[in-house]
UniProtKB/TrEMBL annotation:
Gene3D superfamilies: 3.40.630.30. The keyword Transmembrane does not apply. This is N-acetyltransferase domain-containing protein. Pfam families: Acetyltransf_1. It comes from Delesseria sanguinea. The gene is ycf52. It comes from the Eukaryota. Residues 30-180 form the N-acetyltransferase domain. InterPro entries: Acyl_CoA_acyltransferase, GNAT_dom, NSI-like. PROSITE patterns: GNAT. The keyword Plastid applies.
């Protein structure tokens, strides 16, 4: 439970315009300095906003074997997300190389669902998935969103359990409708 306690803190309330101040603005934050990955050293940055190169995202999703989705629909999903989080490093040409991604949708009050959590295979098992998840949860908690859900494939349930997620204790099963 200690893991979760770090996410419950007071956000900054602006009494002038009755709004909450966003915790992480559209900036690149150095989150890991000198990550050693197979003898190469990388500075890993975090960016939380709704701006992403869709072709870089497609390349990242391809790297883990996800089914290709139409770019036009991915753009709509990104545009309608409450927040997105990206992990990247700057390559030798000083271009961003996307290595991690997650997004969340929300009613902006009570509930949020985390979607599309992905870390490039060459950067997996380095704590980046945990870091990405902790940052997105921290941002959601900043908005006082207390119910955070996600859908997990069987092979990653253990990963999410280590982050404090639980399989629904009431045995309620999600229901889905798909067109025929």
């Amino acid at each position: 439970m200690t893991f979760w306690k770090s996410f419950f803190y007071n956000k900054k309330y602006n009494t002038i315009n009755n709004s909450y101040t966003k915790s992480i603005h559209k900036q690149n934050i150095l989150i890991i300095k000198n990550l050693n990955n197979k003898g190469n050293i990388f500075d890993i940055y975090l960016n939380i906003n709704n701006e992403i190169n869709l072709y870089d995202l497609e390349k990242l999703c391809d790297s883990v074997g996800w089914v290709k989705r139409p770019i036009k629909k991915v753009k709509i999903a990104i545009d309608n997300s409450f927040l997105i989080a990206c992990l990247f490093y700057n390559n030798n040409n000083n271009n961003k190389e996307l290595i991690g991604f997650a997004r969340a949708t929300s009613d902006e009050s009570f509930n949020a669902t985390i979607w599309d959590v992905v870390v490039h295979p060459e950067f997996q098992s380095k704590g980046l998935g945990k870091l990405l998840m902790s940052q997105i949860i921290k941002e959601l908690r900043y908005y006082d969103i207390s119910t955070i859900t996600l859908f997990a494939d069987p092979q990653v349930i253990k990963f999410y359990k280590h982050l404090g997620f639980i399989v629904d204790p009431d045995g309620v099963k999600g229901m889905f409708w798909y067109p025929l």
